[in-house]
Amino acid sequence: MPPSERLRLEHVLEMVSALEAVILRSFGPEGGQVLFTRNTGQAMLSRSGTRILSALHLEHPLARMVVECVWKHSRATGDGSKTFILLLASLLRMISKAISRELGASHTYGFTEAAKAAAAPHLANKLLELASSDLDDLVAVNVVPYGFCLSLEDFTTHRLLLASFFHTRVSHVHCSYLSELTCEMLNRWKHKSDLPCVSLQFLSDNFPALHTPVSGFPVSSSRLIEGQVIHRDFATARLPNKQQPVKAAVFTNYMQPVLLGPGDVLKVGYGDGVTEQNTMVHFSAWTERSLESVIAKLQSLGVSLLLSAVKQSDAALALATQAHMSLVECVSEEELSLFMQLSGVTPVSRGCTIQAKHVAALSFCRPILLGAHRYVHVAFCEAAETCELNPCSLVICGPGEEQTDQYICAIRDAVCMLMTTWEPKHTSEAAASHGTVQSNKSPASSDMTTQSTANEPYVLKKCVLEPGCVIPAGGTFEFLLSKALLNSSLPSVSQLLANALLSVPRQIYSHSPKLFLQAQTRIMSLVQNPSNSVRLKESTSESTVDLGLESVACKCQLILAVVQCATSVLRVDTVLHAHTALHTRSKKHTNSSQDSTEDEEED
Amino acid sequence: MALNGDDEDFEWEPPTEAEMKVIQARRERQDKISKLMGDYLLKGYKMLGECCDACGTILLQDRQQKNYCVSCQEMDSDIDKDNPALNAQAALSQVRERQLAAQTPEVNGGPSTSSSQAGGSVPQPRPEHCEGAAAGGRTPLPPPAAPPPSAPVPAASLATARPPAPPQSAVFRPVLQDAEEAVLTKLRWATAQLQSSPSLEASIQLCSLITSCANSLRSLKELSQ
Lengths: 603, 225
Known about the structure:
Chain A is of the alpha/beta class. Chain A has 22 helices and 17 strands. Chain A is 51% helix and 14% strand.
């Protein structure tokens, strides 16, 4: 492509179709896995769209933009990255078809190209308006009645939702086992008084510290163990005594003041010059004395386990061993912060006196052998903060590193997906924009009534999608929403979106078009008889068992994200290639277009 | 969303069947290109930000830093199949079109036999002949597009000299020798024409004529043995 050619819609479509072809074979519950290998021999096995797309070598700036959008969406919702690309490709195709139809009458080709280039972002903007404002209402009215809410008491629905999620990520043999395991973990971390999203958020934030990968064992060996696993081994040969409770302290800095680091300047004998009293020897003796006092204080408090974020000095190690204390060094920040949250202690910082608040009480602390590694296993006493919680850590086994990695990513994304189901986020975004518009319209008056009416649409918008809403999988959502869009009195772009949505169930049933038609007729017949609510519930429960469940909130967020991505891709007028100085040929171009993206080739 | 005004909206007609076929073919080609590109991306090829100069497809780059265009190098070109110089079918269809154009103004009552070809209507060559696969014994010579007047006459004489009927060998041999002579003459003439021919199309047809002559010579020699 010449350095500053205008971007054509066909070019964009070709790029997105290539990405679609990449993920198509992994799509759906019957999809396959992709094995990536590096020259170093390292391998990665995945069915996750984000991981597959991120592993590709893409220098095309728009392709990277699309993959970035997919990655961000996956981070937010945990699911739907392959559906994202599928929907994006079909949406762009519909837009292209609509534009060709509109401009088919024009016979002057030059004019057609320019008109085409202007028409695409225009259509995309209209779609974005539709998706931001009317989509939630449409979904709430036309789709949600055919679904139901997850129940907090009974975890059967959770299990079903997770099983259908795992069906798209791991092999079907392990789906039910993994969903059982995840449900059990959620149950144990559930705080009775809080909403599920609080515990899910906690799990999601601390997931790196809450799981241990073990390769070389079958998946069925995966289990939950009580307490926390610290992924380091004891630095001292001596293990903590078996007396209960075991007292522990957390150190984030060096126990012995560091003599000299690189770049440090130590001024000895400042002011008086170097005398016999203030040489280096005296300084090092002072550091040793301060270390001894720290150890003595810890001993007086009965501490027998020391957790350190840094590698302590040999003297500290020797003194700790002498004082019958065990030391674990180089503990990661996440694990330390989780430990401190669960035990309720504050870390010992430099210079402060060690008090009771720095000492945690653990019910036990012992080494645990997981796979080829020995770790430290701690369990917490029943403290006031954690009395309702039953902290546990997940040990995930897999035959090889790649499979273990795959299962871990799947579980982490499942937690994220559940979080999105229980807390639909995008409604607050749309509501915020509406809220600000309303408040801007009313002039700065301190009238309570105007302010309350201004805030009302904000509050109302937020509750449109109920938390925990799920619907039978297998294209139900797409069929229902597509029908709703076609029947609504919304602008013509809704037809575009309606047709694009149908590509998803078409791909799900691509191996058998008959099933697609059957599914479509079944759901359309449900829609035709809205009064027959009993039949509705029966049919939804039947289809639930067969097809599984999917989250409505994730789907809504997906559609909005796809439309946003399509808009941003179509808004790009020109791509400029700016080569860095490393390249032999240097091309510097003046930027004439305002809507342009600059691509610097990295080398 | 009428960008060009309402008049042109009313002028829009749905595409004809031929146009639909073209659109369908183009779409299938695009799908194939996308699928190939997806496969290459999964094999570790890099998708560049540049397009191919010839066809406008996105370029891929392999591990050895070599650029690769999927449509140019792997797929049959969209337009090559319409070029008569490269495709026998296209050449045939071009010849038929010319015949059709030539026949309509002419009033040629009687059926054109293979002997009276001086008028200008050329007998319909069968596709197998054009491919150069001339079976022994059949009339293998496709007449060139702009036949010189002498050309049809030796062809006609060859057509009459059919060897399949089993005459006695004494009568057989002079007939075969005549046939051989005629073919050699034709071969010499074709070679001379080939050396001086400026057109690509004619050269290709002359070459196929030479091939057919050689084949007929071979079969005649086999018969004489």
